[in-house]
Design a protein that fits this description.
Layout (H helix, E strand, L loop, with lengths): L1 E2 L3 H15 L9 E6 L5 H19 L5 E6 L4 H13 L4 E4 L8 H10 L3 E5 L5 H4 L2 E4 L2 H15 L4 E7 L5 H14 L5 E8 L4 H15 L3 E6 L2 H13 L6 E3 L1 E2 L2 H9 L5 E3 L2 H10 L1 H6 L3 E2 L1 E3 L3 E3 L10
Parallel strand pairs: 2-3, 2-4, 4-5, 5-6, 6-14, 7-8, 7-9, 9-10, 11-12
Antiparallel strand pairs: 1-13, 12-15
Helix pairs in contact: 2-11, 6-7, 8-9
Protein backbone atom coordinates (compact mmCIF):
# COMPACT_ATOMS: atom_id res chain seq x y z
CA UNK A 1 0.00 0.00 0.00
CA UNK A 2 1.29 3.41 -0.93
CA UNK A 3 0.20 6.91 -0.27
CA UNK A 4 1.05 10.23 -1.83
CA UNK A 5 1.44 12.98 0.68
CA UNK A 6 2.64 16.51 0.48
CA UNK A 7 5.99 15.53 1.90
CA UNK A 8 7.87 18.57 0.64
CA UNK A 9 5.39 20.78 2.48
CA UNK A 10 5.45 18.33 5.39
CA UNK A 11 9.21 18.61 5.68
CA UNK A 12 9.21 22.39 5.30
CA UNK A 13 6.68 22.61 8.11
CA UNK A 14 9.03 20.56 10.26
CA UNK A 15 11.83 23.04 9.68
CA UNK A 16 9.53 25.96 10.32
CA UNK A 17 8.18 24.43 13.52
CA UNK A 18 11.63 23.96 14.99
CA UNK A 19 12.76 27.38 13.92
CA UNK A 20 9.66 29.01 15.37
CA UNK A 21 10.29 27.51 18.78
CA UNK A 22 13.81 28.85 18.82
CA UNK A 23 15.01 25.37 19.63
CA UNK A 24 18.14 25.56 17.54
CA UNK A 25 20.02 28.27 15.73
CA UNK A 26 21.22 25.70 13.18
CA UNK A 27 18.13 24.36 11.44
CA UNK A 28 19.45 24.28 7.89
CA UNK A 29 19.33 20.87 6.28
CA UNK A 30 18.05 17.55 7.53
CA UNK A 31 18.88 16.64 11.12
CA UNK A 32 17.95 13.07 11.96
CA UNK A 33 17.16 11.81 15.46
CA UNK A 34 17.64 8.05 15.57
CA UNK A 35 15.83 6.92 18.72
CA UNK A 36 17.10 3.41 19.43
CA UNK A 37 15.25 0.86 21.51
CA UNK A 38 18.50 0.20 23.36
CA UNK A 39 22.23 -0.05 22.76
CA UNK A 40 23.04 -3.20 24.70
CA UNK A 41 21.49 -6.38 23.31
CA UNK A 42 23.08 -8.15 20.34
CA UNK A 43 20.17 -7.71 17.97
CA UNK A 44 19.82 -3.98 18.49
CA UNK A 45 23.58 -3.54 18.33
CA UNK A 46 23.27 -4.87 14.79
CA UNK A 47 20.46 -2.44 13.97
CA UNK A 48 22.34 0.49 15.46
CA UNK A 49 25.47 -0.44 13.54
CA UNK A 50 23.48 -0.48 10.31
CA UNK A 51 22.04 2.94 11.19
CA UNK A 52 25.49 4.35 11.77
CA UNK A 53 26.77 3.10 8.42
CA UNK A 54 23.71 4.17 6.43
CA UNK A 55 23.26 7.59 8.06
CA UNK A 56 26.95 8.41 7.82
CA UNK A 57 26.71 7.68 4.09
CA UNK A 58 23.80 10.13 3.75
CA UNK A 59 25.74 12.74 5.67
CA UNK A 60 28.79 12.22 3.46
CA UNK A 61 26.81 12.71 0.26
CA UNK A 62 25.01 15.78 1.61
CA UNK A 63 21.52 14.29 1.80
CA UNK A 64 21.38 15.04 5.54
CA UNK A 65 23.19 17.63 7.60
CA UNK A 66 23.67 15.50 10.74
CA UNK A 67 22.27 12.69 12.83
CA UNK A 68 22.29 11.68 16.48
CA UNK A 69 21.65 8.35 18.22
CA UNK A 70 19.47 8.49 21.33
CA UNK A 71 19.46 5.43 23.62
CA UNK A 72 15.90 4.54 24.62
CA UNK A 73 17.01 2.08 27.34
CA UNK A 74 14.05 -0.16 26.32
CA UNK A 75 11.83 2.32 28.16
CA UNK A 76 9.02 4.22 26.41
CA UNK A 77 9.07 7.11 28.86
CA UNK A 78 12.77 7.59 28.21
CA UNK A 79 12.08 7.51 24.47
CA UNK A 80 9.34 10.14 24.76
CA UNK A 81 11.66 12.43 26.72
CA UNK A 82 14.47 11.86 24.23
CA UNK A 83 12.24 13.03 21.40
CA UNK A 84 11.71 16.34 23.16
CA UNK A 85 15.47 16.65 23.68
CA UNK A 86 16.02 15.90 20.01
CA UNK A 87 13.51 18.50 18.84
CA UNK A 88 15.05 21.06 21.18
CA UNK A 89 18.41 20.30 19.58
CA UNK A 90 17.08 20.91 16.08
CA UNK A 91 16.02 17.47 14.88
CA UNK A 92 13.58 17.61 11.99
CA UNK A 93 13.43 13.96 10.96
CA UNK A 94 12.96 10.95 13.26
CA UNK A 95 13.68 7.24 13.00
CA UNK A 96 12.11 5.33 15.91
CA UNK A 97 12.62 1.78 17.15
CA UNK A 98 9.77 1.57 19.68
CA UNK A 99 10.19 0.12 23.14
CA UNK A 100 6.45 -0.56 23.45
CA UNK A 101 3.39 -0.38 21.23
CA UNK A 102 1.37 1.86 23.54
CA UNK A 103 4.06 3.57 25.57
CA UNK A 104 6.07 4.77 22.57
CA UNK A 105 2.99 5.92 20.62
CA UNK A 106 3.18 9.54 21.88
CA UNK A 107 6.41 9.92 19.89
CA UNK A 108 4.57 9.27 16.66
CA UNK A 109 1.73 11.57 17.69
CA UNK A 110 4.13 14.36 18.62
CA UNK A 111 5.94 14.12 15.29
CA UNK A 112 2.66 14.17 13.36
CA UNK A 113 1.49 17.23 15.29
CA UNK A 114 4.79 19.02 14.72
CA UNK A 115 5.01 18.13 11.03
CA UNK A 116 8.16 16.07 11.55
CA UNK A 117 8.54 13.00 9.28
CA UNK A 118 8.95 9.79 11.27
CA UNK A 119 9.87 6.30 10.10
CA UNK A 120 9.05 3.54 12.58
CA UNK A 121 11.35 0.52 12.36
CA UNK A 122 11.27 -3.13 13.52
CA UNK A 123 8.12 -3.00 15.69
CA UNK A 124 5.05 -0.79 15.57
CA UNK A 125 3.32 1.60 17.91
CA UNK A 126 -0.46 1.56 18.24
CA UNK A 127 -0.68 4.57 15.92
CA UNK A 128 2.03 3.73 13.39
CA UNK A 129 -0.41 2.89 10.60
CA UNK A 130 -2.44 6.05 11.12
CA UNK A 131 0.26 8.64 11.79
CA UNK A 132 3.78 7.53 10.84
CA UNK A 133 5.30 8.52 7.52
CA UNK A 134 6.37 4.89 6.96
CA UNK A 135 7.00 1.61 8.71
CA UNK A 136 9.84 -0.80 7.90
CA UNK A 137 9.96 -4.16 9.62
CA UNK A 138 9.09 -7.82 9.30
CA UNK A 139 5.88 -9.81 9.79
CA UNK A 140 6.18 -11.03 13.37
CA UNK A 141 3.10 -13.23 13.07
CA UNK A 142 5.00 -15.09 10.36
CA UNK A 143 7.97 -15.47 12.71
CA UNK A 144 5.76 -17.06 15.36
CA UNK A 145 4.28 -19.41 12.79
CA UNK A 146 7.74 -20.37 11.52
CA UNK A 147 8.88 -21.26 15.03
CA UNK A 148 5.78 -23.34 15.73
CA UNK A 149 6.01 -25.13 12.40
CA UNK A 150 9.65 -25.99 13.05
CA UNK A 151 8.80 -27.39 16.48
CA UNK A 152 6.08 -29.49 14.83
CA UNK A 153 8.55 -30.81 12.28
CA UNK A 154 11.03 -31.79 14.98
CA UNK A 155 8.51 -33.33 17.39
CA UNK A 156 5.70 -34.75 15.24
CA UNK A 157 4.12 -36.55 18.22
CA UNK A 158 3.68 -33.26 20.08
CA UNK A 159 3.72 -32.72 23.82
CA UNK A 160 3.83 -29.74 26.16
CA UNK A 161 5.45 -26.43 25.32
CA UNK A 162 6.17 -23.15 27.08
CA UNK A 163 6.37 -19.70 25.51
CA UNK A 164 8.97 -17.21 26.76
CA UNK A 165 7.72 -13.73 25.89
CA UNK A 166 9.46 -10.45 25.23
CA UNK A 167 8.38 -7.28 27.01
CA UNK A 168 4.61 -7.51 27.27
CA UNK A 169 3.03 -4.80 25.11
CA UNK A 170 5.75 -4.74 22.47
CA UNK A 171 4.23 -5.38 19.05
CA UNK A 172 6.72 -8.18 18.28
CA UNK A 173 5.83 -9.94 21.54
CA UNK A 174 2.14 -9.82 20.71
CA UNK A 175 2.46 -10.80 17.05
CA UNK A 176 4.91 -13.67 17.61
CA UNK A 177 2.61 -15.08 20.27
CA UNK A 178 -0.28 -14.82 17.83
CA UNK A 179 1.70 -16.73 15.21
CA UNK A 180 2.54 -19.52 17.65
CA UNK A 181 -1.13 -19.89 18.57
CA UNK A 182 -2.14 -19.92 14.90
CA UNK A 183 -0.24 -23.19 14.52
CA UNK A 184 -0.39 -24.93 17.89
CA UNK A 185 -3.52 -23.75 19.71
CA UNK A 186 -5.93 -26.04 17.88
CA UNK A 187 -3.47 -28.89 17.35
CA UNK A 188 -4.56 -31.74 19.68
CA UNK A 189 -0.99 -33.04 19.85
CA UNK A 190 0.18 -29.93 21.70
CA UNK A 191 -0.61 -28.52 25.13
CA UNK A 192 0.48 -25.03 26.16
CA UNK A 193 2.00 -24.82 29.64
CA UNK A 194 1.86 -21.04 29.69
CA UNK A 195 3.21 -17.71 28.45
CA UNK A 196 6.02 -16.36 30.63
CA UNK A 197 6.93 -12.67 30.88
CA UNK A 198 10.68 -13.11 30.42
CA UNK A 199 11.14 -9.56 29.06
CA UNK A 200 13.61 -10.65 26.34
CA UNK A 201 15.97 -11.67 29.18
CA UNK A 202 18.10 -14.81 28.94
CA UNK A 203 18.33 -15.13 32.73
CA UNK A 204 14.58 -14.82 33.22
CA UNK A 205 13.88 -17.30 30.45
CA UNK A 206 16.25 -19.87 31.96
CA UNK A 207 14.65 -19.38 35.37
CA UNK A 208 11.17 -19.99 33.96
CA UNK A 209 12.43 -22.96 31.93
CA UNK A 210 13.89 -24.51 35.07
CA UNK A 211 10.56 -24.09 36.86
CA UNK A 212 8.64 -25.61 33.96
CA UNK A 213 10.91 -28.65 33.68
CA UNK A 214 10.84 -29.18 37.45
CA UNK A 215 7.05 -29.21 37.42
CA UNK A 216 6.30 -31.06 34.17
CA UNK A 217 9.42 -33.15 33.66
CA UNK A 218 9.67 -35.29 30.54
CA UNK A 219 6.36 -34.00 29.18
CA UNK A 220 8.08 -30.73 28.24
CA UNK A 221 9.08 -31.04 24.59
CA UNK A 222 9.63 -27.44 23.40
CA UNK A 223 10.34 -23.96 24.70
CA UNK A 224 9.50 -21.29 22.15
CA UNK A 225 11.09 -17.89 22.76
CA UNK A 226 10.39 -14.45 21.34
CA UNK A 227 14.10 -13.78 20.81
CA UNK A 228 17.39 -15.62 20.48
CA UNK A 229 18.95 -14.28 23.66
CA UNK A 230 16.34 -16.36 25.45
CA UNK A 231 16.30 -19.41 23.15
CA UNK A 232 20.07 -19.86 23.07
CA UNK A 233 20.33 -19.54 26.87
CA UNK A 234 17.44 -21.96 27.38
CA UNK A 235 18.92 -24.48 24.95
CA UNK A 236 22.30 -24.28 26.68
CA UNK A 237 20.54 -24.86 30.00
CA UNK A 238 18.49 -27.86 28.90
CA UNK A 239 21.53 -29.37 27.20
CA UNK A 240 23.47 -29.00 30.45
CA UNK A 241 20.89 -31.01 32.41
CA UNK A 242 20.69 -33.81 29.88
CA UNK A 243 17.50 -32.64 28.16
CA UNK A 244 18.87 -32.23 24.65
CA UNK A 245 15.53 -33.60 23.45
CA UNK A 246 13.85 -30.28 24.25
CA UNK A 247 13.65 -27.97 21.23
CA UNK A 248 14.28 -24.31 21.97
CA UNK A 249 13.87 -21.80 19.17
CA UNK A 250 13.76 -18.03 18.95
CA UNK A 251 13.96 -15.06 16.62
CA UNK A 252 16.84 -12.83 15.52
CA UNK A 253 19.69 -14.95 14.16
CA UNK A 254 22.46 -13.27 16.13
CA UNK A 255 26.05 -14.49 15.85
CA UNK A 256 25.92 -16.60 19.02
CA UNK A 257 22.82 -18.63 18.10
CA UNK A 258 24.06 -19.05 14.53
CA UNK A 259 27.30 -20.50 15.89
CA UNK A 260 25.26 -22.87 18.05
CA UNK A 261 23.28 -24.01 15.00
CA UNK A 262 26.56 -24.62 13.20
CA UNK A 263 27.87 -26.63 16.17
CA UNK A 264 24.68 -28.66 16.43
CA UNK A 265 23.79 -27.47 19.94
CA UNK A 266 20.79 -25.41 18.77
CA UNK A 267 18.56 -26.80 16.04
CA UNK A 268 17.31 -23.59 14.48
CA UNK A 269 16.77 -19.85 14.67
CA UNK A 270 14.46 -17.54 12.76
CA UNK A 271 16.71 -14.91 11.22
CA UNK A 272 15.41 -11.36 11.35
CA UNK A 273 17.40 -9.08 9.06
CA UNK A 274 17.40 -6.06 11.33
CA UNK A 275 20.28 -4.45 9.50
CA UNK A 276 18.23 -4.49 6.29
CA UNK A 277 15.23 -3.05 8.13
CA UNK A 278 17.25 -0.03 9.24
CA UNK A 279 19.11 0.49 5.97
CA UNK A 280 15.79 0.29 4.10
CA UNK A 281 14.31 2.91 6.41
CA UNK A 282 17.29 5.22 5.89
CA UNK A 283 17.02 4.74 2.13
CA UNK A 284 13.56 6.35 2.25
CA UNK A 285 14.84 9.64 3.68
CA UNK A 286 15.91 11.18 0.36
CA UNK A 287 12.54 10.46 -1.26
CA UNK A 288 10.61 11.73 1.73
CA UNK A 289 12.37 15.08 1.85
CA UNK A 290 12.05 15.39 -1.94
CA UNK A 291 8.30 14.87 -1.75
CA UNK A 292 8.30 11.62 -3.69
CA UNK A 293 5.83 8.80 -3.20
CA UNK A 294 6.99 6.36 -0.53
CA UNK A 295 5.58 2.99 0.53
CA UNK A 296 3.57 3.23 3.72
CA UNK A 297 4.85 -0.24 4.71
CA UNK A 298 7.97 -2.13 3.66
CA UNK A 299 8.49 -5.68 4.90
CA UNK A 300 11.80 -7.56 5.12
CA UNK A 301 11.24 -11.36 5.14
CA UNK A 302 12.30 -13.75 7.91
CA UNK A 303 14.48 -16.81 7.16
CA UNK A 304 14.49 -20.14 8.96
CA UNK A 305 18.13 -21.05 9.61
CA UNK A 306 19.11 -24.68 10.24
CA UNK A 307 22.25 -26.74 9.83
CA UNK A 308 21.46 -26.96 6.13
CA UNK A 309 21.81 -23.23 5.40
CA UNK A 310 23.61 -21.72 8.42
CA UNK A 311 26.87 -21.24 6.50
CA UNK A 312 25.13 -18.62 4.35
CA UNK A 313 24.55 -16.40 7.39
CA UNK A 314 27.63 -16.93 9.55
CA UNK A 315 30.13 -14.13 9.12
Amino acid sequence: MKRIIGLSLFFCLALATIGATGASEETDGVRVAYIAKNTVDAFHATLNGSAKESLNALKADGTINSWQLYDGLTDPITQVNLLENAIASGANFVILLPAESEGSAPIVSRCAEAGIPIIVVNSTTNNTEALATAFVGSDDVEAGEMMANFVNSQIPDGGMYAHMMGVVGNSAQKARGEGILNILENDPKWQAIGDYAADWSADKAVGFASDVITEYGDDVKAIICDNDDMSSAVQNYVNSIGREDIVAIGVDGNAGPLSMVKAGTLRSTVLQDGAAQVSTAVSLIADIIAGNTVPKVKMVPFTLVTSENVDQYLK
